[in-house]
Amino acid sequence: MENKKFQLEIEDLCKRSQLGELLDVPVSISGGFLHRIYAIETTSGKYAIKLLNPHIMIRPTAWKNYMNSEEISDFVSSKIPALPAKKIDGECIQKINGQYFLVFSWTEGKSLKHDEIKNIHCEKIGSILADIHKTDFSELGLTNDGSDSGLLVDWEYYLQKGKENDLDWVKLLLENIENLKCWDSMAIEASKILASNMVISHRDLDSKNVLWNLDEPMIIDWESAGYINQVHDLIETAIYWSGNKRGGIDKERFFSFINGYKKRYGELHGDWRTVLENGFLSKLGWLEYNLKRSLWIECADEEEQQIGTIQVTETINEIRLYAGTIPKLLNWLTNEL
After folding, report:
1. Which of 105, 125, 180, 240 is most buried, judged by most C-beta within 10 A?
2. What residues form DSSP beta bridges with 219?
3. How many whole angstroms separate alpha carbon 49 and alpha carbon 45?
């Protein structure tokens, strides 16, 4: 029933947006953990249609954030291989029956899994990240409101709610709650220290958001784009591209990424401990969001609730692995940069 509803909305979207008539049923494709994405073929071409999560779109700042992120991707697409949403009647966000959509021209390619990523991929994405950081976005007139510095999360509240709903992750959250409080406090202090030296960037440039076609990358999913500390963005993205399935970090790939960046940007310096401690912030934010989904606080349907429940466990374990990796990363960065 839900898929039928989406199909009718997509048909309506095609008519209103002059994308042509559908030639076949929309095909659901992987859209990460937030949104639904469908591949469609019409009389005018092939497109990817992203259905934006309704519980995100009701947030007061959501519309502005999406508009800003699409302005960023459209602006930088003249300098790097980036895929912005199509503008239809001057708007990048389309609305049909209360559902918001982004429409993308179809691009061939696939994202790389951990065991498929080589040094050459890391170096290439490192150089692209440098080009993003070097871009002058001032004509867009975007301001940094500092909202990402964050407030301490009430982890005890989520633990209590989890107990009341007898959810699978309660024991794991209880075992790690004191560490979560410590990491949360540490990350917020680090983010305050790093509030200067900000650049505009993609902010989620991991391997799932890069499509490769004959070794040529296309950067997709710009919805998180905005201001971020330059060195934090570099190190966090280098970690994305050098990770393995066991949660470890491949040193050679890690420094291939950084060297690709340095070749385009130049030398860099950082308070590495502070940068690494700040790395907890986005991970803890993702954990809180999935706690809300698992508890039906921000959740559209049962499928999303199940995704949230699974992600709570996976995210806590990933945060623990990251904490254990910090001493090694700190040693590498201190001795080799």
Report:
1. 125
2. 82, 210
3. 13
Q: How far apart are CA 12 and CA 81, in angstroms?
A: 30
Q: The tokens of 231 are what?
A: 């060195």
- Please check whether residue 203 is in contact with residue 69, taking contact to mean a CB–CB distance below 8 angstroms: no
Nearest to residue 183, comparing CAs of 273, 284, 275? Answer: 284
Overall pTM surpassing 0.85 (yes/no): yes
What is Dmax (Cα atoms) for the chain?
59
**Domains (range + CATH), the chain:** 2-105 (3.30.200.20), 114-336 (3.90.1200.10)
Catalogue the E-assigned strands of the chain: 27-29, 36-42, 45-51, 94-96, 99-105, 198-201, 210-213, 216-219, 226-229
Q: Are 68 and 58 in contact (CB under 8 A)?
A: no
Report which of 107, 76, 121 is spatially closest to residue 218, judged by C-alpha positions. Answer: 107
The token pair that represents 175 in the structure block: 């075992």
Instruction: State how far Cα 187 lies from the chain centre.
Output: 18
- Tell me the sheet residues that pair with 249: 243
Structure tokens belonging to residue 174: 């209880």
Chain segment 101-142, per-residue pLDDT in tens = 999 999 999 999 999 999 999 999 999 999 999 999 999 999
Distance CA 170, CA 20 (A): 49
